[in-house]
Amino acid sequence: MKTLKAILFWLLSWTWGLPMTLVGAVCALALLVTGHKPHRFHYFVYFEVGKDWGGFEAGCFFFCNNSASLSIKRHECGHGIQNIIFGPLMPFVVSIPSAIRYWYREIVVRTGRKRYSDLKPYDSVWFEGWATSLGNKYYL
Ligand SMILES: [Zn+2]
Description:
This protein has one domain (about 1-140). It is built from five helices and four strands. Helix 3 crosses helix 5 (about 125-140). The chain is α+β, with helices and mostly antiparallel strands. About 55% of the residues lie in helices and about 10% in strands. Strand 1 (about 40) and strand 2 (about 45-50) form a beta hairpin. Zinc ion binds next to helix 3 and helix 5.
């Protein structure tokens, strides 16, 4: 069953979910060329880069800070499931809004206008909360 799920996930990621998987493949290639080591988490390939910034998911790949917590990895994998559901709509429904929201929050905090504690919880928006619950359900 586990193998079947992995095959189905990869098949869907490289067909219906191809746009984000290609983004991930390009990032993965750039990291491989610059000497970063790929890791495996369940059936995802991931890379660790930099410090304390969180993660970014693209198809069957994800990218996260060094020594990322299990909760970050699970959350990114939750976005991987969203990608095989939304397919070519994923960039518009989840990935781009998520990136804009992430940077908006960072800028507001870094410019001293608000503190993280003043902001709504990260998972308060549907696509982040759903990614976390999918990740916690499927990637123990
Ligand atoms: Zn997210």
